[in-house]
Amino acid sequence: MYDNLFFDADGTLFDFMSGERWALKRIFSQLKIEVGEEALESYSQINNAVWLDFEKGLISIEELKIERFRRFHRQYNIDSNPIESAEAYEEELSHSFHLYDDALPLLEHLSKSGIPLTMITNGISTVQRGRLLATGTLHYFSTIVISEEIGVQKPSRAYFEKALEMAKPANNPLVIGDSLTSDITGANNVGLDSCWVNRYGMVNEEGIKRTYEITSLEELLPLLNL
After folding, report:
1. Does residue 10 carry a catalytic annotation?
2. Which CATH superfamily, name and number, covers 4-15+98-223?
């Protein structure tokens, strides 16, 4: 029996892609920049690449915030300060209300089970805490572990060791997340069981070990005998 559930945020509980597009459209409208769907998809690819650099420890979170917009502006010849875009984006994203439909029912069910919930996220602190407040989900989590606040990031062993130290109890937690490179690899780094939330039918090309694989959060409850 697991004594704590370590939940990732973006792509697991929060529909990050919807929130991302919503925030981007708002800031580009404010900056009077016309950006179509193709450009939004390009930004998403740039963002994913920059986040991978962050996970590998190649750049800091502060560099990440600006670098993704610097690359995007350069690719589309946008004559705007990437720092201003980054600040506006962060503000808008913190107000996004894009929870997956299965997230709130699951959190409510788990809150009645007595199992402590811990949020583990590499996301930007102001964004993640703003979302938790905006969606009314903050009270479900007894512990929140944000990489920007503790100085180390998933999937590093140091991050998960800190999460295990902060979360009480956490003798046998289950790590639940959508990212093979961040959540599942991180769990493997410290010998924890993991549950890969594979909503979009992605292929595990590298054969990364995971204990469970589900396509929706509803499938988690039977695994926990709840």
Report:
1. no
2. HAD superfamily/HAD-like (3.40.50.1000)
CATH class entry, domain 16-93: mainly alpha
How far, in Å, CA of 3 to CA of 123, rounded? 24
Handedness of CA 5, 9, 11, 15 (dihedral sign): positive
To which residue do tokens 């915030």 refer? 65
Mean pLDDT of the chain: 93
Every domain of the chain and the residues it spans: 4-15+98-223, 16-93
Determine the pLDDT at residue 188. Answer: 98
Give backbone dihedrals phi and psi of 20, rounded to 5 degrees, phi first: -60, -50
| Per-residue pLDDT, 215 | 98
Buried b (16+ CB within 10 A) or exposed e, 166-199: ebeebeebbbbbbbbebbbbbbbbbebbbbbbbe
Q: Say which of 3, 8, 102, 193 is annotated catalytic.
A: 8
